[in-house]
Amino acid sequence: MKINSRTIDMKEYGIIVFFLLLMLTLSFVARGFSSTENLINISRQVALVGIVAVGMTMVMISGGIDLSVGSIIAASGVTSAYLITQTGLNPVFAGILGVGVGGLVGLLNGFLISKLNIPPFIATLATMAGARGLAYVITEGMPIYGFPDEFAFIGQGYLSFIPVPVVVMILVFGVGYFLLNKVPFGKYVYGIGGNEEAARLSGVNVGNVKLLVYVINGLLSGLAGVILLSRIMTAVPNSGNGFEMDVITGVVLGGVSMSGGEGKLRGVLIGVLIMGVLSNGMMILGFVEYYQWIVRCFVLIIAVGFDRNIGLLSSRMGRTSKLPISS
Amino acid sequence: MRNEILVLQGITKRFPGVVALDDVSFSLRQGEVHALVGENGAGKSTLMKVLTGMNSPESGKILIDGVSHSSLTIQSAKTLGISMIYQELNSIQMLTIFENIFFGREYKRGGLLDRKRMIAEADRLLLEFELNIPSTRKMAEITVAYQQIVEIIKAVSSNVRILIMDEPTAPLSIDEVKMLYRLVGKLKEAGVSIVYISHRLEEIFQIADRITVFRDGRHIATHDIGDTNEESLIKEMVGRELSNQYPPRVDLPLGPNILQIKRLSTSKIKDVSLRLRQGEILGIGGLIGSGRTELLRAIFGADRILSGEVYLGTRNVSIKSPFDAIRCGVALIPEDRKQHGLLLKMSVEDNIIFSSLKKFMKGLMLNAAQISDAVGGAIVRLAIKTPGPKQLVKYLSGGNQQKVVLAKWMESNAQVYLFDEPTRGIDVGAKYEIYELMNTLKSNGKGIIMVSSDMQELIGMSDRILVMKDGQVSGELKRDEITQENILKHASKKHLPRAMEWREEE
Q1: Domain that includes residue B38, residue range
Q2: Measured between CB atoms, does A1 come within 8 Å of chain B?
Q3: What is the H or E stretch that residue B330 is in?
Q4: What pLDDT does B12 receive?
Q5: Residues of A in contact with B18 (CB under 8 A)
């Protein structure tokens, strides 16, 4: 029992130490890395991944995965853009409807997974293609631009010195923490990820909880899509391409178990920050975007490898093997 | 005296904070069945891990055929002919029987798999062990009992000399247990030595030649089977007098009907009717596959009800899911705690409150203070041994895990408790406590339906027994009619049709 609490501590501790070392190293080798301006810049870059990571954390704790987040970002962004430019809709309503599109795709994911029993990987792989297709159909493959200047606020504005997207991310983390820890829903999410059948036999409406988890993730992806649109003020159908990679890597880095039932949001926050710091650092050091992909590959593998082998370590000490535990 | 094939001397194994094995000695003669008993935590599992090479002891010697080893590896244990049949079977469900038997040592011809030869050899082995099924069946399609035999065949066909069996009869019905005994007899004749771990003392007296008792990581005694009896063994196991395995029966004037079902049918059971009264324990007897578990699952809404009516009190209710059942005050304590009863990755506290979270809401949030009061109270009331409410439930012993499951339902204020094998894999001392808790529920006016394969338990605890066969009720035994003979008579009224040996299609 002691061993276990130590493993968890070690995992969390390890990630924090890694983060601090990374910051320290970069502030020495990368010129301008530790300037206030750059740190604010990083936080803005991290915000979108962070917002979606909260939803993804719930999905992965429940034992699932959602590959469609990047496509949802594109679909909701172009929907808002289309509504603003083609119908002259008030940008606020257009933004809300864009978030709604994300929620709808999430609802579809949840329906496919919880009602039709399609494995999450496959269901969201399908909607990943579908939502991307939708984005192309709406834009007919062309970029959309020409929004009122006020619309830039949510993506580019500041509240005092903090970028608005960062404020949104902090709020989303707060709400996520509340949902996962302070209300029954969160316990159910952990329970379902740990042992779905036991949760069902304890009276949890497993289908509805899962449905809600994917809807939340869809809504948050939609929100990220609208913020991204406001930041670049141009809607392109291939935006958010590969976004799921950053989100999932951040979440896994933050200690959420791929097999579900375990993980904490505060770890995920660190995980996401590491991803942001890493790509910012590489940019300053002059890595071309292409190499950044290769670095992401290693980060993901190392993160999961670390996770799995800490598990292995404790099983070598005779804790999680096939034999019944004798003490 | 036959020669000793295995001798363990002065084995000590420590884990952080515990001495799992303390200067333990043990010996195994060729062709004997040596039973190993002790409560959970006595060190049996650790000793077996030492023997199978999963743990290395800090000190002590392992002598095999007179050759001394300080420790074994999984590989060397295998080479020396030591094999273990685990309580949780290790077979690969989606592969066929013969593929499982030859897994990792397939016959080949010119580099390709020699399917024909493997099937022929597997069929021969199955026949030799009285299993009349083709070896091309998938593991998932045969019963747990047969899967276990296949695992034994797998071990035997790879030249095992020391076979360790951990609670082999736990998932078996009476007939299957007899089959297992015959199999063990055959293995003995062939000179295989068997270490037999079991909580069921009566079967040890039928099958073992010698018996060794462990307690708290220490070797307490080794007897020839003729030189001891159940009572003194229990005394050695628990280290104190335990006058009776069952608490005195609580006799109450029975209350009104708390549950009544009329002609209930699902895909697994047919036209089952029963009534349960407040303060009553209704036992359900029958062989494995007779529909006992399925009856509980139907009442609990876990399997789809095709026809029939369920009344709670006098209210006709419709139960379509466990969610409905729990709202109506029905609770299921499932047979397989780890798979179905517990959230192993979660804490004792989370498990206890999991089915009654709504009760702990204060405004929009869960009320931590109220939760910790309730959980603290439950831990004391049920005497759950845990370092604290935040302890992960997977680190508790079987008996304490079962208490956590019970605490969960008591917290949700359930009225009808469906126990499926309430004490499977639980040691003697904790068993007694579970029985006492069942009696407490009874005196509080709850109703209990208990499925059990343990004949003594069924007879010892039930106020009335329904016997099932082929998904139907084949007999009812009132208090004064409850005997082992009567139960068996109803359980096997006719010859079992062959089809019953297959697991029904999902």
Answers
A1: 4-238
A2: yes
A3: strand B330-333
A4: 92
A5: 327
